[in-house]
Amino acid sequence: MSALPETLDNPAEKRPVRILHLEDSRVDHALVKFALQRSQLASELVLVDTVDDFRRELQGGHYDIVLADYHLPGFTGMDALDVLHELQLDVPFVILSGAIGEAAAVDAMHRGVSDYLLKDSMHRLSHVIQRAIEVHETRHAKALADAELAESRQRLAELAEHLQTGIEQERADIAREIHDDIGGALAAVKLDLAWVGRRAADDDMRRHVSSALEMLQHALDASRRIMTNLRPPILDQGLVAAVAWLASGFERRTGQRVIVRRSSEQIEVPRDVQLVAYRTAQEALTNITKHAQATAVDIDLSDREGVLTLEVTDNGKGLDAQALRKSNSFGLLGLRERAAKVGGWLDVSSSPRGTSVILSVPLQSSPNPDHPAQADKDSHDQSDFV
């Protein structure tokens, strides 16, 4: 049967609601039209009574809502819903039936039906239609907003990655210049001063030379420390050695006991994952120094079951939940962003008995294991967790 368009006047001069009515009874169709007229809902009603006509109308025109009887000759309203899904159309779908069991109604709602109405409650039809359309529009607007938010977050993540790459490249260049230019120049000056000191006959001159040599040594030590922070050479010896070196330095500076446990003496991971793990351990230790008031730290490093796991735990005072949720916790945000870039995730749990920072990275899914641009993506971010 061909589609039969029916148009009602619109006193409010708003765009009429276009309704596709799947119904085999002309009497019931007339009742629907009468109910809409009484409710003064501006609408355009199109009647179809076969699956083929239903499909053709959906493909050929834009409809705001579908009203469908549940029991039709040779098929059901659920078959019509399947056609709607097959055509990938996002249109509210309301069952309007003389009788539908509770189980069938529940199943229909689970399968995506917007609402259902019994034909003996036709006085509620306009309300059901308007509510279904409003809910659909709200969900559609939310889906669009979620998509835009996800796209915005992706762009921000890409921008952050681009900026981080530029910063790390610049830091690597600075470290190289310190080593090649400043370090070389300071070493040459030290040799010359030492030569002058050995040949100086005047005691005052020797004292000045000795003082200058001490200051020069201080400058050399500072340059080495800066270069180490920018790109620690210990990373070339592997992740286990790098984490052990971090722990040793932390223990020496703070006097706090640090125990490092590892699944093996050599844990082979891609370079970018190594850097993320190293910086996570470094930031966790920095946070412990500034906030935890701990007396002992445990570091567990494992690559069992194809997952790199780094856990840094302290016995300090812990962090409250509000502090962990602070929007300006850029140290924590940065660590999570780093973990996500290598396909991993970061968990932080805290209680009055201490704080635990856990990095997990599935090794088989780590992207770009030997990408050269990753070599220097290991900045010494001084920001705190909180």
Report a brief summary of the structure.
With 386 residues, the protein is an alpha/beta fold. It is 52% helix and 18% strand. The protein contains ten helices and 13 strands.
Explain what you see.
- By secondary structure, the chain is of the alpha/beta class.
- It contains ten helices and 13 strands.
- The protein has helices at 26-39, 51-60, 77-86, 102-110, 125-199, 203-230, 239-254, 271-292, 321-324, 330-341; strands at 4-7, 17-22, 43-48, 65-68, 71-72, 75-76, 93-97, 115-118, 257-262, 296-302, 307-314, 345-351, 354-362.
- The strands form three sheets. The protein has a six-stranded mixed sheet with strand order 1-3-2-4-7-8, sandwiched between helices. Strands 9-10-11-13-12 form a five-stranded mixed sheet, with helices on one face. A two-stranded antiparallel sheet has the order 5-6.
- Helix 5 (125-199) packs antiparallel against helix 6, helix 7 runs parallel beside helix 8 and helix 8 (271-292) packs antiparallel against helix 10.
- Residues 1-12 and 365-386 have low confidence and may be disordered.
